[in-house]
Every structure is written in structure tokens, then in C-alpha cells.
Amino acid sequence: TPSHETLVATSKVADGIGIPISAVLPGVKDGEPQFTEVVQTAHDHTLLVHLWTHRNDRLPRWAPSTEELINWLVRDGRVDGLFTDFPDTVLDWREQARDAGPLRGPFHLLNGGSDKP
């Protein structure tokens, strides 16, 4: 997890950071995701936050499902992007999320155009 000082320094030379999922969401307590402050701090310094790497076959032990993990990261954690080895899963999630109504946050995958022809 990058420190506040690292994020400030990075914001002077970059537009965003790529960090592991665990740097934003290290675990769950009593069924609730426990987020670090890294996304808020990065956003305060105009940095985008992209997480790596989501894999359906290697979910964190505390994640109940792929869909719930993505929901937590995007809806609650307000990440800007997600690297994945399973793009079809994230695209399916996006379609379901769009059907469910507007989301808060700048997640670029949601703000782009439709992936349908």
C-alpha cells in the first residue's frame, strides 16, 4: 500500500497508479469490506487507481464471489479500473451493473460506450 508521501510524489509525475487489490481491500470483517484510505488519498491528489490482477480462479480467501468482490471494489471502494485475466467476467458484471442503475464513482469501464455492436 503506497504511503501518503508516495502518492503525493507520484501525483507530480503520473496520472495514476496500479496497485494490488489487497492495497485497497485487505479483507472483510463481519461480512463488511475493510478498505484502506489509498483510493481516497490518491483521488485527493488527482491520481487514478487501477487494481491488479483480478482472477476468477484466485479470489482472495475472504471474497464470497467474483461478483461481490467487483461490487465492493467498484461500488464501495471507488476504484477507477481493474486489470483482469477474465475480461468476459468483468464485461458481464458491467452489463448487470448498468441494468441495476447508476453507480457512484469514476470507474472507467462503466463510463465507456457499450461493448455491443
Question: What attributes does this structure have?
Answer:
single chain; 117 residues; alpha/beta; 3-stranded parallel beta sheet; 5 helices; 5 strands; 19% strand; globular; disordered C terminus
Largest sheet: 3 strands, parallel
Task: Determine the fraction of residues in helical runs and give it as a percent range.
Answer: 25-40%
Enumerate the strands of the largest sheet in spatial order, edge to edge or round the barrel.
1-4-5
Approximately how much beta-strand content do the residues carry? 15-25%
Distance between the termini: 39 Å
Task: Give the number of helices.
Answer: 5
Q: How does the overall form come out from the CA principal axes?
A: globular
Chain-averaged pLDDT: 88
Low-pLDDT segments? 113-117
Account of the protein in words:
By secondary structure, the chain is of the alpha/beta class. The protein is 38% helix and 19% strand. It has five helices and five strands. The strands form two sheets. The chain has a three-stranded parallel β-sheet with strand order 1-4-5. β2 and β3 form a beta hairpin. The longest helix is centred in the last third of the chain and has 14 residues. It starts with a helix and ends in a 6-residue tail after the last helix.
